[in-house]
Amino acid sequence: MTRIKRHQRYLSLAALLVLPSVTEVKSATLATSFYGSTQDGRHVNLYTMTSARGLTVKFISYGGRLTEILAPDRKGHIADVILGFPSMKDYEAKDKEGGFYFGALIGRYANRIAGGHFTLDGQQYTLAINNPPNSLHGGIKGFDKFVWDVQPISTSGPLVSAKLSLTSPDGDEGYPGTLQVTVTYTLSDDNALTINYEATTDKDTVLNLTNHAYFNLAGAGAAGGVFPQVLTLNANAYLPTDKTSIPLGPPEPVSGTPFDFRTPTPIGAHIRANDPQILLARGYDHSWVLNKSGDTSRPQLAALAVDPDSGRTLECLTTEPGLQVYTSNFIDAQYAGIGGVYRQSDAFALETQHFPDSPNHPDYPTTELKPGQTFYSTTIFRFGVQQ
Ligand code: GAL
Fold first, then answer.
1. pLDDT tens per residue, range 286-330
2. Pocket test for ligand 1, best of 100, 326, 330 (most atoms within 8 A of CB)
3. Dihedral angle at the C-alpha atoms of 361, 368, 131, 89, nearest 10 degrees?
4. For residues 372 and 4, is the Cβ–Cβ distance under 8 A?
5. How far is CA 41 from the centre of its chain?
6. Helix (H, G, I), strand (E, B) or coil at 259
7. Which candidate among 45, 84, 264, 372 keeps its CA 20 to 30 Å from the CA of 69?
8. Which residues line ligand 1 (CB under 6 A)?
9. Which residue owns the Cα nearest ligand 1 atom 5?
10. With contact defined as beta carbons under 8 Å apart, do 28 and 159 qualify?
11. What is the rounded CA–CA span in Å between residue 269 and residue 249?
């Protein structure tokens, strides 16, 4: 089955919400333009994908970053629903200050590895420590700072797509094996952005890939932040952490805790609860263990977010076992982006991934990849409106 056919099969799972109507059949488009240059002279392109139903997704080759997602509300008004920045200079300046990974593809290992150490095949590996005492999001120069090679695959039709690829050399940030990674961004006429990840290695290694978009369905920089936006998570359990955000051990039930989003709950409803986990993270910054049933090679519903005011909705489906929900706890008015000055709780990230620190938790789903195997992962972000 081709990737596109498989993708269309997944879409039937997501048909929960209405889409903005389309009066005439138009084609989706993908356009390429020059975005800017990195400080060390690398050429960065901007890719603009627009669906027949008026969703626009922009990304750049630097970090494969989603820079803008322009989504209609129930009245057809357009807003940019992710936090982004206007120029290459902005992105590189933020990265020097420690990041925040705005819109970026994350690898080799999304989330943290405790102490920057893990053992594989009896050998201990030491990683770059960029979030003391841990290694975070691939280390000092993760995939968010690579300029990816981007090949448009389909530039018009019912869906448009582009393939991003990179080679991470053996020993990169301390990880073993030469890793070949491709990520395909596809925008389809149901306003779904599908992200397909694939990777191969020439030595045993570990990996965990995700995208780090920060969403605000009211529009980036909207004064009320995301507290009124209503989240539902398809998860009965989550992973409590220590004070450095490393999971303590086995999943804990969400029942009776501020982590219970099994029914639609405003993000702000319990974010001020006097709960030790909320205090440690300054909000939500945890991995939920997604409920799964049947064929786990197909993306299954992980999250649904709704902005009651605008009616904009976002469904997230994934093949990954976990979802890190991060309420932008450490963004504190230090950056002005396309949507204005970004503050704490201005956005939520839905990072589909394996669990943090899995290489040091043999009871978690494995993150190991061996030569001859291909890693596959799919995440769908589907935008709609609720009347
Ligand atoms: C998240 C992580 C947070 C924070 C953020 C980047 O994925 O869970 O703890 O590091 O990335 O600022």
1. 999 999 999 999 999 999 999 999 999 999 999 999 999 999 999
2. 326
3. -150
4. no
5. 27
6. coil
7. 264
8. 99-101, 136, 245, 285, 324, 326, 330, 351
9. 100
10. yes
11. 27
pLDDT tens-digit profile of 85-125? 999 999 988 766 667 999 999 999 999 999 999 999 999 99
pTM over 0.85: yes
Q: How far away, in angstroms, is 241 Cα from ligand 1 center?
A: 13
pLDDT of residue 5: 37
Among the residue ranges 1-5, 305-309, 366-370, the one predicted with the least confidence is: 1-5
> Using CA positions, which residue lies closest to atom 7 of ligand 1?
111
Residues 378 and 195: their CA atoms lie apart, in Å, by: 6
Cα of 343 from ligand 1 centre, angstroms: 15
User: How far apart, in whole angstroms, are the C-alpha atoms of residue 266 and residue 225?
Assistant: 12
CA 76–ligand 1 middle distance (angstroms): 33
Say how many C-beta atoms besides its own lie within 10 A of residue 174's C-beta: 17
- Catalytically active residues are 212, 351
**Ligand 1 centroid to residue 200 C-alpha, Å:** 26
Q: Report pLDDT for 334.
A: 81
User: What average pLDDT does range 8-17 have in this prediction?
Assistant: 41
Q: In this structure, which residue's CA is closest to atom 1 in ligand 1?
A: 326
Q: How many residues does the chain have?
A: 387
Angstrom CA distances, 141 to 39, 135, 374, stand at 15, 11, 24
Candidate from 211, 215, 285, 335 with most ligand 1 atoms within 8 A of CB, to mutate: 285
